[in-house]
Amino acid sequence: MVATTTEQLSALSNTTVVVHPLVLLSVADHHARSVPRGSSKRVVGILLGQDNGSTINVANSFGIPFEEDEKDSKTWFLDHNYIDGMWEMFKKVNARERMIGWYHTGPKLRASDQEINDLLKRYIARPVMVIVDVRPHTVGIPTDAYFAVEEIKDDGTETRKTFLHVPSAIEAEEAEEIGVEHLLRDIKDSTTTTLATRVAEQLASLRGLQSRLGDIQSYLVDVASGKMPLNHQISYHLQDALNLLPDLNDQELTQSFATTTNDEMLVVYLSSLLRAVIALHALVDNKASIGRAELEEGKTDKEKEKGKSAKGEEKGDKEKDSSKTSSEDKGL
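Request: output the structure for the sequence above.
Response:
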């Protein structure tokens, strides 16, 4: 369905695409098996799941044969018969899952995406396109979901086809959570502490925020220079986000931040003192235990020497007695 009215556009923008971990693993495996390292080629596949109107649940997927010219992205090939055959088999396995869209590993939009999306309307009335970024250094959610729409310009000129970005999320069912936990159990480094893990997660979040802010800056620069048209919806969202930022010139807010920081630093200071006291206590205990061990060893050495001297005296007495006895026998 191509959206042309404001109501349809607002309905599409409020649609959330939920991607399951099984789909991410399948797409990553498809890309790893099909594309050599260092290549900019992408892979294409079909998404399966349920379209519930406001929520699209992407539960499964399968790859399809796809080739395109790297120099001319409008020259591409897609195997229709393969889609028909795979869809017939998937219907026998799980009839609840329907074809709801397609994916590719972009990592950005390409010129041929609109033509591929139009082709897939033979199978899907409202196909959703999900771009899965499989690059290992990607920070944040690796999925971007889009719907094909016709953009109506304010000046009344001819409409043009484009893609509308919709929010996406990563969610898992109970069975998938168990599988992912077992998978991460082998990958997780047992030497890292919980604190180190939390710091790494916060660092990854900050890197993701920095990446998003960079995208916003580049977009605003392009709009200001006239390279891109102004999108009022994006401007409204940016204004709402900026309105949520705190006013750092407010004295009460600044005092609150300072108080919270001081409380946290006090906890850190007390923790350092406690750690130092525990370390000193362990050092004193260690020295005391070593001293007791040395005293016990000295006592045992003295006892051994006394035992040896006592045995020597007994032996000497026995030798004297034996010599006396032998002399008396001779005298007789």
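The beta strands are 16-19, 44-51, 55-64, 66-68, 76-78, 98-104, 128-132, 143-151, 160-166, 168-170.
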